[in-house]
# Entry
Amino acid sequence: MKRRKFIEKSTLTMTALSLSNGLFQPRLFAMNQKTKITPVAVATWNFQNATKKAGEMLYNGATALDAVEQGVRVEESNLKNTTVGNGGAPDRDGNVTLDACIMNPEGNAGSVVYLQHIEHPVSVARKVMEETPHVMLAGEGALQFAIQQGFKKQDLLTPESEEAWKEWLKDRNYKPIINIEKHDTIGMLCLDENGDMAGACTTSGLAYKMNGRVGDSPIIGAGLFVDNEIGGATATGMGEAVMKSVGSFLVVELMRQGKTPQQACEEAVMRTIKKDPKYKDFQVGFIAMNKQGEIGSYCIHKGFSYAKFYKGESTDTPSDSYLK
Ligand code: ASP
# Structure
């Protein structure tokens, strides 16, 4: 029986029992009433359009899973955003290849990597989670699956992204830019009114990466991890560095050990720094939320922030950083 149904049922049973005894016990009745949680939507960077979309859904009773999916889709469709979805910067051979994953409160996960020609990789990832016996599909197989599921095949390379890529080809200098466009991968965590948490992460990866490169964002535990008993975390920045410490899983495990979301993000960033002497050359940022809706964030270089939607208010909060 679903938790909600069970609680509603037990409330009714308790009321009926109390009345039939001739003893109406209002305190007992109140204890059995379902407690609604105040929902929260939080995302990496100043993606307030995405958190607003997800947050409004949550306040209208949507599940955390539906909210994260629909929330990050806003950025997947945003053609001005060259770091996520349609309009994303291509690899060095001119291919737009997308990575995304999603996790539900039951701990199930779906992921797609190196997916081309599909505007909403997060929704394909959800289909992988819900319609296949697998967690991750890659490349051509992921594309075939998406088409079978009714997704439309389209060209995702915008004229602007193509022009920027052709410019890059002139000297082919591969140097990932820190805080590109003041945003990057979108990772989102939502807590719904039932107190359940889900997460999603979606990206076009690093601009001008090698053909075939996959970053941290679709890797469960690296770019995203949600444990509905504890909370969730998601990452942005240099995927190669995040993967080495399985960053988002690390943040959630640190929260499990009793750290606040803020302390957990700080420790995970410090781990990354300790393991890589070249940390000044790249950005890594984490956000985390625990089951109480408390949020933390930390990054290497300043400039990272997180968007939040809470009680009708949309905000952007600068993250504390290791390098000031
Ligand atoms: N983490 C992403 C990747 O490595 C990119 C980013 O967030 O900057 O693909």
In short: The mean pLDDT is 91. DSSP finds ten helices and 13 strands in the chain. The first strand starts at residue 40 and ends at 44.
